[in-house]
Design goal:
The protein is built from 15 helices and six strands. The chain is mainly alpha-helical. A hairpin with a 4-residue loop joins strand 4 and strand 5.
Length: 419
């Protein structure tokens, strides 16, 4: 009679394909005490077999969906790649931006790590390093070909980018860290949902930084708007005017075609907004004159805002239009030339909205013009302007009672009779 210890075996059948698989779970505790790892009791073997069954079922589902099975450990880089493939299939917006974040901040440091070995401490340490990293700078000038000379040994060394110094810079870096963390969590949760890993406590316990979206919103005064428009080149001037007249986002303006302007009812049609819904922007008379001037005699399917004399070798699909981030350098140069404090293109939208609120327009109407689904976002960003508009309206419209100032007569003193 053999005294060799027996083995726990698990056998699994795929109900869809009728295929079978078998795996050795561990050694039975016939002659050695169970340690829960190599030597197992019956209950421990059942639990381990259940985990294996679930893993096989998940792999079967992935195989039926056409997802190839990867040999070896599932790394963070694998999780990012699988997430982006699925997100692209589902038509997730902002995917290029998320891919860029992954390539810059996630894969270089975390990509080679196994997802199953990630710890909360490791992720939080990486998150902290993001907040201390210098801001990456763009190179080259907008619309200008770069002819950089080769560096010479006599050239002075370029200073290294400095880490964030001011409170605003620190806030901005924390905000960036939150966005990158959000992309990482989305990919890891996708891996968890697809059965690539069994537990997600490590990253789900990591919290984003608080108070990072409270940056002061900048509004350009009427004088600053005029100065800014006057210094812009002709093509960018049209784009800036379009933003100041409509409050439309940069991407919305770039997608406009000539036919989106309705001269008959004085409105501009935004087919695709950030929320995915369309809207009609009511135009002022001044705005109607502007859009009439830039669309007259042009084909209705032509892009409304074009760049002048720009050859798109790398992005011919833009057909002479404005592409992602093209506005950044132009806006920076224009603010400098106009002696206006540095402002992002999106702040032209804030400027438009603040003008409506200060004019006394109800928040619901402002929200409709901006494309917000309700007034919550409008009140969050512009609600503090409403009291000013209310005060101006009361001082202008409230009736004048004509009571005058206090009379220049000494009031009578009423003597109180003593008892």
């Amino acid at each position: 009679m053999s005294k060799a210890a027996g083995s726990w075996l698990a056998r699994w059948n795929d109900p869809e394909t009728k295929s079978e698989a078998q795996a050795r779970i561990g050694t039975a505790d016939d002659y050695s005490d169970a340690d829960g790892v190599a030597v197992l009791t019956f209950a421990q073997a059942q639990a381990k077999a259940q985990e294996w069954f679930e893993s096989r079922a998940d792999e079967a589902i992935l195989a039926r969906e056409g997802v190839p099975r990867k040999k070896g450990p599932w790394t963070v880089a694998d999780a990012m790649e699988a997430y982006f493939e699925d997100a692209e299939r589902r038509g997730v917006k902002g995917l290029d931006r998320d891919k860029q974040r992954s390539a810059l901040w996630i894969v270089p440091e975390l990509g080679a790590l196994e997802v199953a070995e990630l710890t909360r401490r490791r992720i939080e340490a990486w998150q902290k390093r993001l907040t201390e990293a210098p801001k990456r700078k763009r190179t080259g000038k907008a619309g200008v070909k770069s002819h950089k000379k080769k560096p010479s040994k006599d050239d002075p060394p370029k200073p290294k980018p400095a880490p964030p110094q001011t409170e605003e810079e620190k806030r901005a870096r924390k905000d960036t860290a939150n966005r990158v963390l959000s992309t990482l969590k989305a990919a890891l949760n996708h891996a968890l949902d697809r059965g690539r890993v069994k537990h997600g406590e490590a990253w789900q316990a990591v919290k984003p930084y608080k108070g990072t979206t409270s940056a002061r919103i900048r509004f350009l005064s009427a004088e600053e708007q005029v100065r800014l428009v006057n210094v812009c080149p002709a093509d960018f001037r049209r784009l800036v005017k379009g933003a100041l007249y409509t409050g439309a986002r940069y991407g919305e303006l770039c997608r406009l075609v000539v036919g989106d302007f309705n001269a008959a009812n004085g409105s501009l049609f935004i087919a695709i907004s950030k929320s995915g819904k369309s809207r009609h922007i009511v135009l002022t008379e001044e705005a109607q004159e502007f859009f009439t001037s830039i669309t007259a005699g042009r084909p209705s399917d032509e892009l409304m805002f074009l760049r002048d004399e720009v050859e798109r070798r790398k992005r011919p699909e833009l057909a002479g239009g404005w592409g992602a981030s093209d506005q950044t350098r132009f806006m920076s140069l224009a603010c400098k030339a106009a002696e206006v404090p540095k402002a992002a293109f999106h702040e032209l939208r804030h400027t438009y909205a603040s003008g409506l609120v200060n004019a006394g327009l109800p928040m619901a109407y402002v929200a409709a013009q901006l494309g917000h689904t309700d007034t919550r976002m409008t009140e969050k960003h512009y609600g503090h302007l409403a009291p000013t508009a209310l005060a101006d309206a009361i001082r202008t419209l409230a009736p004048k009672l004509g009571l005058g100032n206090d009379p220049k007569v000494t009031p009578l003193k009423i003597a109180v009779a003593s008892e």
